[in-house]
Design brief:
It is an enzyme of class 2 (transferase). The N and C termini lie far apart (43 Å). This protein has nine helices and seven strands; from the N terminus they run αβαβαβαβαβαβααβα. It has helices at residues 2-11, 24-38, 57-67, 82-92, 112-121, 140-157, 173-176, 189-195, 227-239; strands spanning 14-20, 44-51, 71-76, 97-100, 126-134, 169-172, 199-206.
Length: 252
């Protein structure tokens, strides 16, 4: 049995990373959906990152581990934000491919296999499959703020992505680890992946209402919060001139 466990761990190709903060009521139903959606991609793992929750989220995750052996849990002692939680999950992940989705249930895990397939079909030169929401279920004010932010970002960064705020993404772990880390990184991934010389593919995903509770993240939708990050990413793109094509030189 130990040898079998080692072989299964080595065979993991997909890690599903879910950042959560105070989402106790959403843990069990969303986990069940992720497990069902990713069953055709087995073996896989699910990495939940508890970003300093102060509700019953830790207890809900502990109970879920008994039902989901593929579940691993990482915890921040105090809340560090969504980008930090995603990064902690990616660092802990063992798969070549990483899927991320929000922990509130608005991102439907049923779209993960399609994004994985799209990224693989695009070949090794593709670094990211970005979900783009249709049928948004957010309130009118938040949708207007998001539309403005996406429009300004698109005009400045020219990343050919209408909805970078969608938490549902699939990317190559090695590509993610090449990106400069900063708060709100997950909001700018298409532009930064392209900066590293990789292409980005897109897939429409159906948005849905959160399962329970209220939003604990999402401040970027207020345009002024992300303006400095936007300027910084623009600077990074301007400074990157050519991506080296590196080849191993074999000794004769």
């Amino acid at each position: 049995m130990p040898d079998q466990a080692v072989r299964e761990q080595e065979a993991i190709r997909l890690s599903v990373v879910v950042p959560v903060k105070n989402e106790a009521g959403n843990i069990a139903p969303l986990l069940a959906e992720i497990a069902a959606a990713c069953a055709p991609l087995s073996p896989f793992e699910i990495v939940y990152v508890d970003d300093g929750s102060t509700d019953a989220t830790p207890a809900a995750l502990a109970a879920a581990r008994a039902r989901h052996p593929e579940l691993r849990v990482v915890r921040h002692r105090e809340s560090c934000g969504q980008s930090a939680a995603v990064r902690s999950g990616v660092l802990a992940a063992r798969g070549e491919f990483v899927a991320t989705l929000d922990g509130d249930g608005q991102n439907d895990p049923a779209f993960i296999p399609g994004l994985v397939a799209a990224l693989k079909a695009a070949g090794p030169g593709a670094g990211l499959a970005q979900g783009q929401r249709v049928g948004r279920k957010d309130g009118r004010r938040k949708m207007i703020q998001s539309r403005i932010a996406n429009g300004v970002r698109g005009r400045i960064l020219k990343d050919a992505t209408r909805d970078t705020g969608c938490g549902l993404k699939v990317f190559r772990r090695a590509v993610y680890l090449r990106l400069p880390y900063f708060d709100a990184l997950h909001r700018f991934m298409p532009a930064l992946v392209a900066r590293e010389g990789f292409s980005v593919v897109h897939g429409d995903v159906v948005d849905r209402p959160r399962l329970t509770g209220h939003s604990n993240y999402g401040l970027f939708d207020r345009l002024w919060v992300g303006i400095l990050d936007l300027a910084g990413v623009w600077w990074l793109i301007r400074r990157r001139r050519r991506v080296p094509q590196v080849e191993q030189v074999e000794t004769e």
